[in-house]
Amino acid sequence: MSNVRTSRKGVLITCDVPTKQFILHLNSKQAQGFIINDLDETHLFVEASAVHEIREQLERLQEMNVYVRQA
Amino acid sequence: MDNEMMAWSHVVLSSVQIRAGDGAISKDLLKGWVRDAYTGVHRAAVRQLSALRVLVRAQELSGAAAAAQQQRRGMIALNPPFRKNLLQALLTPDVAPWKDDPRFALRPDKLTPSRAKIEGEMRRKWEAVLHFLVASDGAGAGPTPSVRAFMQQAGLMARRGRSEQLVITNRGYEFMLRDIHVQAWMFVLSLIRSKSSDAQARDDLLSFLFMLSYCTVSAALQPLEGHHNAQSVCAAPSLSCKPLPAAPSASVNRCSEKVCEDYPLLALTPAQAQLARDFIDLGLLYQRKPSSQRFYTTEIAVNLVFGAAAAEHPSRAVIQAADASAQLDLAPRMTIIVETNFQVVAYTTSDLHVAMLTLFLELRARLPNMVIGVITRESVRQALVTGIKASQILNFLKWHAHPNVINRRPMIPENIADQIILWERERTRVKYDAGTLLDLPFEGVHDFDKVAEYAEELGACLWAAREKRVLIVAAAAVNKVVAFADGLMPS
Fold first, then answer.
1. Which residues pair with A12 in a beta bridge?
2. Which of the 8 DSSP states describes residue B331?
3. Where are the domains of chain B?
4. d(Cα B472, Cα B462) in Å, to the nearest integer?
5. CB B463 to CB A1 under 8 A?
């Protein structure tokens, strides 16, 4: 019998606390969640297919918080 | 340069002089020929030559009885093949490769290009390649397909999205900042790698490179025979491109200073000819017209093998001297001042430099001899998106620092440097690692720790939680870790 009960492929996301909360928020908005395992405050294990979307959303969030002086 | 090179040639020549047998000599005797002040240099030279297997321990040479072996302890000798070929080279008057074969003898070229023309042509072509790399609007036709292929193969440029257009990558950016010798060398490396399956072709290419390093750009006035020879053999290719000392007599061919050496293309093997054609595309070699059967070398091509050493040991005085001389006439210098208000002033006249700057700068004004730009979040972000790193941008700015700023510490205002790094970090706030989550239902913590430790040793442990007995392992090592876990007895 194997000592490994389950194994699952995915992507480990390492980030700060607010960013993780934002990703949780993204997850809750989707009908089918992409989070496989909520590991701890700064780590998440998600479906590989969701990474692209997460990246884009985070970039958009950052854009919203930047003030650019008009030349 | 000279200390080191001299030490090398001194050691080699000393060992050549030993005629007896296979030329074994005791280390102490060899050292005895050196003045006390230079023993350090001498020792370093012996060490380096041993590392290159030019010098070998006499014991390693076979064919001596055990008793004799004892006696030979502490003796060194030149590597026999090296010794044989060196002697041969010293005794043959003709240095130029491909010249001794009458089948490929070339008639004198009626329209021999001048050296200035060849070097100018090389610079023009090479700049075109770099220009293409930074993708500044594609003025002109752009480089040939082989150069394009190289850019992609070496990972210097990549297709972004679905578009046909190639965009510079992180590696390409690094490539651009390097010295031209290193760039040429990287090109050669990628070529050799692409041929790595074919041993014959690879050997051909390597021998071509070595032969090139014995070519000369222009047939400078021939110094005393034999002397020239020894020089080019012992002191490595470095010397072969330097203008040789003018012979006192002016009776030599009156315009020989300007005459460039030509070499027959037909003497090359197919693989070599292919490489030569690639070099011609890049400007490293010069050919008057595509149908011509002769080619001319340039300084960069001659120094190719030597220039590679520059990449590994940039601190070496030898290389610096050679580089400085090469750079002087190669790249018009650009000097940059970074102001605390994010404004950047760059003094340059070259379009290429401007194109390089626009990778991370927003241009505001262009004057005949200078460019003014601003570092903005957006402009830096664009550079970061292509994979250029903040440290690369900063190094670029430091590398080209204006003489007035160069002695200031820090060279780049702190707030600017910090901001660029912060902008980079903004993008790397989140780290994504593909991996596999393993659920290990061990009873005790002990077994789990063992597995975690093992994964750590492999450098594959991304995350571990003892309480939950969950481990995340990098994709590459999953099988190993699972096998290890299964190997443990369930407790």
1. A45, B433
2. S
3. 2-91, 115-243+256-307, 335-427, 435-487
4. 5
5. no
Q: How far apart are CA B264 and CA B294, in angstroms?
A: 5
Nearest CA to B285 out of B121, B402, B420, B81 is that of: B121
Per-residue tokens: B55? 């010098």
- The secondary element (H helix, E strand) that includes residue A44 is strand A43-46
Q: Which of B382, B432, B461, B468 to mutate to test the interface with A (most CBs of A within 10 A)?
A: B432
Is the separation of the CB atoms in B206 and B220 below 8 Å?
A: no
What chain A holds in terms of domains, given with CATH numbers, is 11-64 (3.30.70.1220)
Please list every residue in chain B whose beta carbon sits closer than 8 Å to the beta carbon of residue A43.
Answer: 463
B374 has which bridge partners? B343, B362
- Say which of A2, A8, A16 has its CB closest to residue B436: A8
One-letter amino acid for residue B458 of the chain: L
B20: its two tokens: 């007896």
Q: CA dist B273 to B112, B205, B294, B426, Å? A: 21, 9, 11, 49
pLDDT in tens, chain B (491 residues): 456 666 777 777 666 665 545 567 777 777 777 778 788 887 888 888 888 887 777 766 655 555 565 666 677 777 777 777 777 777 766 556 666 666 666 666 666 777 777 777 777 777 777 777 776 544 445 667 777 777 777 777 777 666 666 777 777 777 777 767 777 777 777 777 776 677 777 788 888 877 777 776 655 433 333 333 333 333 333 333 333 333 333 333 333 344 667 777 777 777 778 778 878 877 778 877 777 777 777 777 777 666 544 333 333 333 344 444 444 444 567 889 999 999 999 998 888 788 888 888 999 999 988 999 999 988 998 888 877 888 888 988 888 888 888 888 888 999 999 999 988 888 777 888 888 888 887 777 888 888 888 888 888 888 888 888 888 888 888 888 888 888 876 54
Distance from CA of B434 to the nearest CA of A (A): 4
- Same topology, domains B2-91 and B435-487? Answer is no
| Strand-strand pairing, B262-264 and B294-297 | antiparallel
- Whole-model pTM: value is 0.56
Distance CA B284, CA B271 (A): 17
Which 3-state string (H, E, C) describes B230-257?
HHHHHCCHHHHHCCCCCCCCCCCCCCCC
Q: For residues B455 and B474, give the distance between their C-alpha atoms in angstroms, rounded to a whole number.
A: 9
Q: Is B477 helix (H, G, I), strand (E, B) or coil?
A: helix
Task: Round to whole Å and give the CA distance between B427 and B170.
Answer: 15
- A7–B438: do the CB atoms touch at under 8 Å? yes
Residues 466-485 of B with CB under 8 A from A: 470, 472, 475, 478, 482, 485
Instruction: Specify the CATH number of the domain B435-487.
Output: 3.30.70.2610
Residue B439, H or E segment: strand B431-439
Return the exposure string of B468-485: e unless at least 16 CB atoms fall within 10 Å of the residue's CB, then b: ebbbbbbbebbeebbebb
Arch. (CATH architecture) of B2-91: Orthogonal Bundle (1.10)
